[in-house]
Each structure stands twice: as structure tokens, then as C-alpha cells.
Amino acid sequence: MRLYGGSPYYVEPVQAALMTDLDDQGPVRAPRFGLSGKLLILTILFLMIVQVLIYVPSVSTFRLNWLNDRLAAARTAALVLYAAPSGMVPDDLARDILSSIGAQAVVMKTGQTRRLLAVTEMPAEMHRNFDLREVSWFDAVQGAYHGLFDPKDSILRVIGTAPRDGEFLEILIRNEPLQRAMLRFSRNVLLASLIISASTLALVYLALHFMFVRPMRRITRNIMAFRADPENPSRTIRVSKRDDEIGVTERELASMQSNLTSMLHQRARLAALGLAVSKINHDLRNMLASAQLVSDQLSSVRDPRVQRFAPKLMRTLERAIEFCQSTLSYGRAQEAPPDRRMISVEALVDEVHETLGLNPASDIGWIVSIDRVLDMDADHEHMFRVLLNLARNAMQALEARAPNNPLRDQIRVTGRREGGVVVIEVSDTGPGFPPRARENLFQAFSGSARPGGTGLGLAIAAELIRAHGGAIRLVEGTIGATFHLTIPDQAVDLDSWREERVSA
After folding, report:
1. For residues 146 and 178, is the Cβ–Cβ distance under 8 A?
2. Fewest Cβ atoms nearer than 10 Å: which of 52, 239, 318, 457?
3. Total number of domains in the chain
4. Predicted model pTM
5. pLDDT over 60 (residue 33)
6. Helical pair 304-330 and 245-299, crossing angle rounded to 10 deg
7. Closest by alpha carbon to 449, among 501, 392, 502, 490?
8. What span, in angstroms and rounded, lies between the C-alpha atoms of 252 and 256?
């Protein structure tokens, strides 16, 4: 009889570890510059951009209209001035006409001649030329810029269509009246824009604030409060009746918080249970060790009744020891990573067979069908535990319907290679798994097929197989239970392999 050794393992509370990790991140503080401030700045910025896009064409159009009005007045004056004989227009009348136009000179070209119709003061130079007959959008914008920022005493030469048979009409005007008119127009536009923008800004800001910012702020406060005390169900967010994205976020967040709270409570209970079980197992193992010694002494008694009941007692003690060992093994925080190397599958299966204690005279048949020289890239101890758990479960399922017959009650182990994957199947001819056990087959304390079982064997086996990058599944539609294992070969780094060969 074998007693599995090992020191007791005490389970740390999962909840405490989780909360420690959360606390290590430090307290979560509310942002100094929140969504409201960012929203306000962005709204102002976008409105300013819109106002610029509105103002530039507006002031350009105003300038064009202002110049066209001066040209229209100049055409009317040109008809009078052009009809009068040369030099017959009094200077006072000419000055009055030019003053009404706002120009310093009026010139009209007819044919090959340019005639100065009227002039008050001929400037020394013209600073800008602007032809209203063909005006592009860029020219209008550029002219508006020059009109606002050129010096007041600069002279602008404006060209337009001439009356009657004239080729073109041009006037010379100072920039000051145009600049003054443009500034007055800009002031009026700015005042109106400020009123409209302020109203629009307030409406947009309030709408976005109440529709988005306030709900997001409420969600943020809830997350911070929930983080401080995730076990408190009252910290779960209250879901509103919104059916938009924020409503979906609230519902999903509430569901996640409820699940997390439930999980923390469950893990706290499991942690407390694990701590209690580890202490119980420690004391129970000591008591079982004493019981083993007594059972060994009873096996040497020649009383027939003792000889009949002693094997049953020994099997009961072995199962109790096995249960303690499985519980302690599963209670470890994490299995050691596999130490992979090429191992013989046939030798591994023979070792499992010897550990089970099945001999040719047993009432349970043991059949092995493994390809010759089948090697597997895996951890020997891990795969031994996997196959031992599967084979022991199969043996227990067959023993449950004693008396056994080796022709009927059999355990079969097959192994083959499919490319870079080793496939192993462990099957039995027992009653199989009930539907309820199949649903939680590889879940600890949930996937046992026999009464009083824990399901730890399958849970540990699945964990070890996944650590190798493999998979384990229950094959449907077979007699009894058949487990299908796939273990892929480990990828080899050729550079490291060459270095090992050279060093060797």
C-alpha cells in the first residue's frame, strides 16, 4: 500500500489577492479637465472656424459690391463728362461728381485712346490694380485682405465695363473709405455672429452636456465607486431607459459588475473552503497514515473474516488518500510549466499499468495498441498524471459493476502519430458518462460521473494537456467512455539546436 506524501498546501484567499492588485494601482482620481471643458473648447473652436468660413466670403462680397457701386456711379458720370466738349466741364462740377463717386479720377478708354474725364488730384503711383470684369474667388479674397490691411492713403485702380462704345472704364480711389466701410461691415458681422454663436454655443453645449457628458460622468463616478468596493451590490450602476449606445453601455456595465461581484463572492467562498480543506486534508492524511498501519497489521491476521474485509478496507483507504492528494494538487495556484523531451509512449503506458496494479489475473482487461517506436515530445510526469487519471477513472467505472469479466470489462490505450501530432486514446467498456456530467466534464467538482467523486482528475488532466498546447475531448457515440488526446510536437529553434550540437 502506498501513501502519497507531500506537505499541506494552504490556499490564499483569491479575493484578497485580487484586491491587493487593485490597490497597488493607486487611487483613481477624477480628471482635472473633463469632458465638459473639452466639449466647451471644441464647440468654441468649431464655431470660430465656421465664423471664419462665413466671414471671409461675406467681406469679399461686400468689397465687390462696394466697388461695383462706385463703378456704376462712375458710368453715369462718364456719360455726362464724355458728352461735354473737352474742357467745358467746370472744375467745381468735376470735383462734385468725383466726390459723389468717391474717386480721385475717372478714365475711359475708347478705341486706341484713353481719355481722362475728370480728376481732382492725380496720384503719383497706383498701389493696387483690380479688374472687376474677371474676378476669381481667390482674387476676391486676396483683394479683401489688401483692403483691410493696406495703408489708408494707398491708391486702388479699379477697372470695369465702360458705357456705350467704350472699351473699359477705370477709377482711382483711396483705400481709406473702402477700408472704413469694410471695418464697419466687419463690426456688424462680428456683432451678429457673436449673438448667433453665443446662442448656438449654449444650445449645442447644453444638448451635448445633458445627452452625453452627464451620462458619461455618471458612468465614470460609478466605475470609481465600484472599484473602491466591488463586493458591494449597491455599487452596481443603475440602468437608465435609454436605447442608444450609452444605454447599451450602461446595461453591459451593470451585467459585468454583477458578474464580477458574484464571482468575487464565489471566489471568496472557494478560498475559505480551500483553506479549510487544506487544513482538514493535513489532519486527515495523518489519520489515514495511522489507519494504513492498522490495515497492514490486519492483513497479517489469519482470520478468514479479516482476510475477507481487509482488501475492502485497504481500497477504501487508498481512495481516501487519493482524494486528499487530488484536492491538494488542484489547490496549487499554478502547475509547473512542462519540461518537454522525447519520451517513449509505450514505456509511459506500462508505467501507468504497473501503478494501477492490474495484472494478467485481474478481472479487468488491459489492452494496449501503440505504434512501434512511438515517441512523444512532452513532460513525462505531466503525461503520467494525465494517463493515470484517465485510466483510474476507467478502472473505477468498471469496478462499480462488479463482478467483473476481463472479456467484457476492458481498458484500451491506443497511440499513433499523425504528422507532428501524437494521438492517444484511452477508452473503456463501462457505462460512460451521464448527460449532466458531460456538460461540465472538465470542471472541478462538477464533472464526476460517480457518486461522491470530485471531478478533479479530469480537470487536472485537461489543464496539463493545455499546457502542452494540446487538446482533450470525450468522443461521442462510443461504448463506455473514450478520451481523445492530441499532443503537438514542440517547435525547434534551429539556431539553438546548432549551438547545442557544437557545444556537445
Report:
1. no
2. 52
3. 3
4. 0.43
5. no
6. 150
7. 392
8. 6
Angle of CA points 123, 135, 140, to nearest 5°: 75
Write down the residue that cell numbers 443603475 correspond to.
238
CA distance 78 to 89: 12
Residues 416 and 460 placed together within one structural domain of the fold: yes
Q: Give the pLDDT confidence of 352-394 residue by residue, as tens digits.
A: 998 887 777 778 899 999 998 899 999 998 999 899 989 988 8
- pLDDT value, residue 10: 38
Mean per-residue pLDDT over the chain, rounded: 78
Edge-to-edge strand ranges of the sheet holding 155-160: 113-119, 105-110, 168-174, 155-160, 128-131
Residues 407-457: tens digit of each pLDDT: 888 999 999 999 889 999 999 988 888 777 777 777 765 545 555 455 677
pLDDT in the model for residue 330: 59
448's CB contacts (< 8 A; 6+ apart) are 437, 454, 455
**pLDDT confidence band for 288 (50 / 70 / 90):** low
Residue at 218 is within a domain: no
Within this chain, do residues 265 and 376 fall inside the same structural domain, yes or no?
no
Other Cβ atoms closer than 10 A to 264: 16
Residue 15: what pLDDT? 42
Cβ neighbors of 45 (< 8 A, separation 6 or more) are: none
**What's the CA angle centered on 138, arms 135 and 143, to 5 degrees?**
75
Please give the Cα distance from 454 to 327 (Å, whole number). Answer: 9
pLDDT single digits (tens) 172-231? 888 888 889 999 998 888 888 888 878 887 888 788 778 877 888 888 888 888 888 887
Of 338 and 316, which is predicted with more confidence?
Answer: 338
Name 224's bridge partners: none
Burial class (CB in 10 A: 0-12, 13-18, 19+), 91: exposed
Cα(305)–Cα(3) distance, integer angstroms = 25
**Mean pLDDT along residues 127-152:** 86
What is the domain extent for residue 259? 1-29+229-333
Residue 16's pLDDT is 44
Local structure of 117: helix, strand or coil? strand
Residue 113 CB neighbour total at 10 angstroms: 8
Please give the full DSSP string across 325-362, using - where no structure is assigned: HHHHHHTSS-PPPP--EEEEHHHHHHHHHHHHT--TTS
Q: Are 398 and 404 in contact (CB under 8 A)?
A: yes
Residue 212: DSSP 8-state:
I
Residue 61 near residue 86 (C-beta atoms within 8 A):
no
**For residue 369, which of 333, 327, 411, 414 has the smallest C-alpha distance?**
414
Is the same domain home to 65 and 134?
Answer: yes
Distance CA 469, CA 237 (A): 40
